[in-house]
Write the structure tokens for this entry.
Amino acid sequence: MNGKLRTIDLTLAGMFVALMAIGANITTFVPFMVIGGVPITLQTFIAILAGALLGRRVGAISMTVYALVGLVGVPVFARFGGGLSSIVSPTFGFIVSFIFTAYITGKLIEKHKGMKVYIFAAIVGMAVNYVFGTNWMYAAYKLWAAAPEGFTYKLVWAWMMVPLPKDIILAVCAGMMAHRLENSVLSKSSFRNINRVA
């Protein structure tokens, strides 16, 4: 594949930007699903799908565009957040991590298309999201944000244990879904055929 982005790449990237905005705010009307300032969303699931279905390059681009759209003020982040002030939010690291999640997920399944590889790549992508986002959050609370009383590194990881089972299940589902879509639809689509020729 050459370095040029094709119309279909941009279209699919835009679709995943929209899906991320929906996934970010799916629990907006369920405020008790916010643990330690971290809203439980479907963003990790969608970031994994972006990498698995679009590939590392287009998947990462779609997540980058999502972050930039939010930073310019469009309310696409969790709880309809947006704007440059989001950078100082303790949870902004998770938004950045989606770029790496999509890239690494896509990279791991580039040459191996088995179901096990898809599920493995999805779990690794989820782990990247957790490690990057959680450590960013810890650093943010220590360096510039107002940390809650008794805040420790163990506590921030304890917060993340709440959504972890959900994200593991969704990661596995994302890997399985991506594999099935690849073999039933995408492998025969113009998107795949174009990229093979390029």
